[in-house]
Amino acid sequence: MTTTPRAVRALAGAVATLALTAGLLTGTATGRADAAPALVLPAAAKKAKKTKITAQPKSATISRYGTKTSVTLKVKASGTKLKYTWQARPASGSWKTIKGATKSSYKAAAATWANGTRFRVKVKGSKGTVTSKTATLTVLQPTNTPAADAAKAFGLQGLSQGVDLSSYQYAPSYRVKPAVLADWAGTNGFAILRIGSGARPINQSYTDACTNQTRSTGGTPVVPDCAYPALSAQVRAAGLRQGAYWFNGWTTGVDTSPGNLFAGSFTPQKSAARFVELLKADGSYTRASTDPLVIDIEPGSGTYTKTANGKRYTQKLRAWKPKEAGEFLSTVKALLAADGYQANLYVYMSANTAEQKSQGVHVWSDVAGTARLWVASWGTNNGRVPAAQPKVGPWAGKGGWSIWQYTSNTRIAGSGVGALDGDLAKTDAWTPR
After folding, report:
1. What is the 3-class SS of 95-136, one letter each residue?
2. Which pLDDT score, from 0 to 100, does residue 92 have?
3. Rounded to an integer, what is the distance from CA 425 to the centroid of its chain?
4. Comparing C-alpha atoms, which of 207, 203, 245, 237 is closest to residue 220?
5. DSSP code for 92
6. pLDDT tens, position by position, 308-353
7. What would the mean pLDDT of 349-378 be, rounded to a whole number?
8. Which residues lie below 8 Å from residue 55, measured CB to CB, with a gap of 6+?
9. Residue 354 phi, psi (nearest 5)
């Protein structure tokens, strides 16, 4: 091809124009010492989005009492400048706006909302307002029929229901009514009563729960339960079966202070002797009685301080170990047998304690050979029977639990008190092994 001078000049001009344009856009114009400013394009205005719910609030089940008494309802939405307004509607009634509920989530508590309450949320944005679907709140109340519930859930026949009581339910301002408990418990209902405790150290002042008067333990770490004599008589009069328990306490093995400042010379054997003394003094425990006799294995709730030779010692009561529990049980059995009484022996403990192992062996195996198990396993502790039976450790090969404390939130209308420990018992729980 032959290029003419005119074509060459036109091509050169076009190249120069392109070069100049490129320099303006990049800020590095060819042949100039100073860079040209970059070309800035105006940003597009943000376009409002249509208001839309992308995830609806879900219905939920909670309990009036226990560990799961609230739920957080949530909604997800897309749009611009969103605002939220939660509303509630009882099982029968109209929708009402919930004051202060203006976020994408709302925490609904059983103490505030009744069973069957419905919830929804209105989401308002720049382009419209939408209303969510309805979420319903189910609030579970404590059961009045735990024995029937457990029989249905686990196929257990002949279960009975009852409670365990102490001076905590016998204060001057409120006192439990065993006759009402008997109506709730029905056939073979029962009450297991605390007869005494060794949980307070020697020479310790305390307030008597039955009278609100100040007392002292004196030289032994023993506090007889002030409500036991009255409750025992009332329980028997109401037709309830009975049991008695002793809360483990300060002993020379538990006390680590020099000179045993907390326990004095007290031992598990002395605890057992005091337990038997109180049991016989009541008069309701006869040579024909087969009541469960229980050592309660739990740590103490308080911390105590003693001073000796100008030095302070602070301790908290630990739970008894298998050896200490075994000494208590064997002494109770021997003392009762020597006088012609029977001994239907029990230990009370949590399911976690029953499951304890050391080097692959259950630590409570020896005790399981001599005593039945009253086990505490509450689940969400809502006053209802948990979804699974408790773990029982070495008692698994011995028939499992005999008494099951399934909650501390039993609520019995007219009982005179609030929450009670609720228990289930198997058919042979009052039969000595």
Report:
1. CEECCCCCCCEEEEECCCCCCCCEEEEEEEECEEEEECCCEE
2. 87
3. 22
4. 203
5. S
6. 999 999 999 999 999 999 999 999 999 999 999 999 999 999 999 9
7. 98
8. 74, 75, 76
9. -60, -30
